[in-house]
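Following up on my earlier message about fe (ii) ion. Here are the inputs again, as you asked, copied directly from the submission form:
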Amino acid sequence: MSDPVRVLTTLAKALSAMGLYTPGHPAREKALDVAYEELSSLQGRDPYAQFSFLGDEVVYGQSALREMGAWDWGRKLAAAGVQRLEFVDVVSREEYGEFLADLLARMAPAPGAPGASTAEARHARRQGIRFGAIGIRGEGAPAPTEAPRLERAAGAVAYDLGDEADAVRWMHDEVATRGELPLMEAEAVVRSLAVAMHGDSQMVLPLVHMKEFDQYTTTHSLNVSVLTMALAEHLALPARDVRAFGVAGLLHDLGKVRIPKEILVKPGKLDEQERAVMQRHPVDGARIIIASDKNLDLAAVVAYEHHIMLDGGGYPKPHFGRCCHHASELVHVCDVYDALRTHRPYRAAWESAKALGYIEERAGTEFEPKVATAFVEMVRSWDERVATAEGTLAKTEQS
Ligand SMILES: [Fe+2]
Ligand SMILES: [Fe+2]
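Thanks, got it. Here's what our run produced:
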């Protein structure tokens, strides 16, 4: 059994013992000792151990713990609002004990007590331990009416993406105020989107609809991430690339946190100076990403290249002609499609068919032709399924 697996199994045993015995009981203290020993030994090797629990998946750092597939406690933790667990400093036994007691309280709240809200959970921090939720709302927490939603055929609401949107907004705030990218949060959002995407084979167009203009950057990031992953899958890329492209899609406009709000939400046309500020976001984004984590070089490349056209147009201007990374080609198409489909202060949202026509027309000049064709084909098949589903729905309503 590997160290991280032992940490989790002893954590679960300690939680069980804590559910059965009162503080100070030898059986409870013994289970805590064992759990703490395992954690200390793991922290000796990996002081910043990170776990995520999502669906049937338990992830340690970057890799799924296969032997923990369908681990019951993973699901329980996730359902209690703990989908990620992150050790950021050496933890004392006392701190670990308190943390586990807290977990237990979240999993079995006192009757009548409201479930912990996600935002509260996300920001709950001990010195050495952070934990929080992605994608699952604590029981009892009312769903905000403005929460963006994933929709499927015929407009039926499939998923509430309020938590992912919160997470992205929080991530942008962190970058804007502290200059640090909370990578774990970003990866958890992408994992959660991937799960939502595959959660229902009937789901057709998993796009988030914007309710207010200031949600633009958030909803746009989520949409580009989902579209990029769907396109990568459509192109039969390996699963690892699909996720990595999804992270790149989520972070492609990160540099916009440096753009003053007046320019970002300006209703009219930008003047030359404002446009220059706007066009700095690819370079700024790439810098922020690379400064946060060197392993995110793909996301940094995509942030840098996502406005560069196939024929060299766009921005930033490359110093010499070169091809963009395949991930940038995918994100570029998805970015333009989502932007066109969105209502902006200066123009109405385009119909899907019109946006697809635009992409087709510019395949070979702005867009890499194979990527553009695959994208158009994929979205058309979704649109057809939506139309069929709507037709069926209308007939059922009539009869
Ligand atoms: Fe952009
Ligand atoms: Fe964008």
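One observation from looking it over: Residues 72 and 308 are 46 Å apart (CA to CA). Hope that helps, and feel free to reply on this thread.
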